[in-house]
Amino acid sequence: MALSDWRLSVDYDALINRLISERDFLIIQDLDGVCMPLVNDPLTRVIDRAYVRAAAQLEERFFVLTQGEHSGKRGVNAIIERAFAVEGLSKKAIAEQGLFLPGLGAGGVQLQNRRGKSQQPGVRSEELAFLFQVPVKARYFLINRLGNPPYSLAPANLQLLAESVVLDNRFSPTINANLLVAILGSTSTCRQLQQDLQQFMEELLRDAAREGLDDSFFIHYAPNLGRDEQTGAERIQFAEARQWGTTDFQFMLKGALKQAGVLVLLNQYYGQRYGEFPLGEDFNVRQAPRSLEGLLALAAHHFDPERMPRIIGVGDTITSHIVDQNGEPQRLRGGSDRDFLQLIQQLGQHFGSDNLVALVDSSAGEVSRPAVNMEAIQQHQPSDSEYWQALEGLSDADDPLQINLVFPNGAQQYIQVFKQLVKGQAQNG
Questions:
Q1: pTM of the model
Q2: Which of 4, 275, 399, 424 to pair with 224, CA 20 to 30 A apart?
Q3: Is the dihedral of CA 284, 286, 292, 293 positive or negative?
């Protein structure tokens, strides 16, 4: 059976046996929730050193694609530096050994190689100047808002809280509300917080427009409920009794779409493996089409099918919810990993490369998210309603995104399978 025909499989041995002797595959994976459990405070994240070394062994066959960033005190590079400090490795030594994770950060804007050298093509200085102001404005907003009802948090704690939840990323400043939601507890208060943060972000867009940057930025919500068909803006997911909904509020550069990043990384793969960049050596996400249809058409026109690798896409953030829209129930699908995984699925169908889409269940971390009920899935068939109830909040019977492989036990399970695959590849020569 083709890997793309699998449905919610947990047969990792079969996957490893299939890939163990292959050389023409490419892994594109998210970071948080995939190889690192989700946490309330991003500064407490840790990464498995053996996993990092395994990723380095794959060379051009491995890339990350994340909403987070490579650099900065909250970037993944700093996490890697802390991890290897226990071995006495300096930043220079880590770079020399090629242990930094290659790929795209900030939703696709920041491209980094294994040596930790990064570039951000297509980003203008005036855009960076505006982004530089965002964390300061965000901290000021939170300190003033959280001391008042309905939050009424202790004034002595506000500065520290604001410092913790505002991520001063250079290209994607973010309010990560995980810690605030955990403190507030009440669903109604969390929903009010989400509304306040949404309004703050929308005011930032208006500020940018007043400075002549009306087409430079957008707001990314994670998780989300897809995009509004009329405005193109992402739909926020409000908190419910059993899940927090949107907790990341990111002020992003337009074009920073993970699905566009797939083509950037595929272009890099072709360049590194074959010495030719089908889309040009400087191709970046801000030059890419913004629709899945446009991205697929671009790939179909430029990439040599004979050189197309099997792509394995790995993410953790997809959503599927029924919401009330003008008195009528409507199914909305979203999540920051959905579109990049769906493009990988479509590329596999078009090029016949038998791509595989994998979902890591990130519900066991510190952030409340829907979980995969593997027991129910294994006891039922896709034709049974109980089967899809096991994926409530993530997918549904009519979902165009088909998950081939699932890691119900989270990041640690994915890491173990990843390391086994790389070890098997090394032993197989």
A1: 0.95
A2: 4
A3: negative
